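Researcher: Good morning. I'm working through a list of sequences from a screen, and I'd like to move beyond sequence-only analysis. For each chain I'm collecting a predicted structure so we can compare shapes side by side. This is the next one on the list. No need for commentary yet; just the structure.
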Amino acid sequence: MERACSPPEDAPHQCVFCVGRKMIGAKGRFRRPVAVVDEMEALASLGFRWIRVEDDLFTFHHERALAICKEIARTGLTVRWRTYARVDTVDPELLRCGVGDVGSQTTYQ
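Model: Good morning. Structure tokens for this chain:
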């Protein structure tokens, strides 16, 4: 069973192909890492084993993305999850943390 959770509220980039900016604005507000993982835990408690993190900007703030991965590891959350990333915001450390340690199966670009 798969369920989506939705961390970002706005998009800071001006991508010409993206309708999100037109729909919700470009303020760039992001939910706290603990709140993201709390939502993932709530979904897991309902029986969801796959979670799609609907965050086109998951890796936009490197430290926030690492904090989410560390919070997942800290809580022992065992669900599989996937998210989105811009290729220019990903580095080896983030890929090791997300893919290797805390269950991310796919990162879409």
